[in-house]
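Record type: monomer structure entry
Structure origin: computed from sequence
Chain ID: A
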Amino acid sequence: MRVFVTGATGWIGSATVDELLRHAYEVVGLARSDSSAASLAAKGAEALRGDLDDLGSLRRGTAGADAVVHLANKHDWADPEGTDRAERLAVEAMLDALAGSTKPFVIANGLSGIVEGRPALESDASPAVGPDADRGGSENLALDAESRGIRSLAVRFAPSVHGRGDWGFVNFLTAAARENGVSGYIGDGTQAWSAVHVSDAARLIRLGLESAPAGTRLHAVAEQAVPTRAIAEAIGAALGLPVVSVDPEDAEKHFGFVSHFFGRTLTADSTATRDLLTWAPSGPTLLEDIAAGSYTEA
């Protein structure tokens, strides 16, 4: 099977490309630069030059593949509306190229905003609908494409997809600890995050691609709820820094944009995902990764 992967040299994308290549898939990765293209070629994958704004490249990559895994996102925190608009247009272009093919289309999403007050379930539909919604409403747009003859499925990722080399949220929390000389949590630190090791997330994507029915929502969640205070304590121990509570009013100054996520409980259950795919996460836990130096070693 030939798989077109957007975000192929990103954090989750790189692990996904490796997972697919290990299982004898042909991989074509979207590459924004010569260095990204060279990285893919060194692994044995093919590179297609382009980005999310290059709709022609997205259509060509999609049309020439047997399946699509869409992991790229601009994540421009200074221009969220532009990020959402680009996501919507990119997904529309790829779905148009897949219409009537019955080929699988895997789309990434996060857990933020799915539900409040309890862990999200795979049966919970995303409330983001329409082009002006979060991520351009792309999850619902993709899942609704079942009516167009596309086997679409959504993979919702825990706020921490962790591992050595991660440049996501926990990396920003570690940088804030270094800058401030303390490792902080917000308020009483009872907010919690779900977490998954990047290798487990990549395996889940492959398993979903292989067998998940159209319209499936999958949760890439190994640990349902890691308290934010425990995350701060692990970072503090790894850096040899004191651990303090940060007043919610001071959180953005202390943590930057990540404060908007670190001050919330973002959790999900993955029981249905595990049962459907016989997926059993086996990577280290988030706190084990932090303790092993994955975020603190230069």
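Annotation 1: The chain has two domains: 2-159+196-220, 160-195+223-267+278-291.
Annotation 2: The chain has a mean pLDDT of 96.
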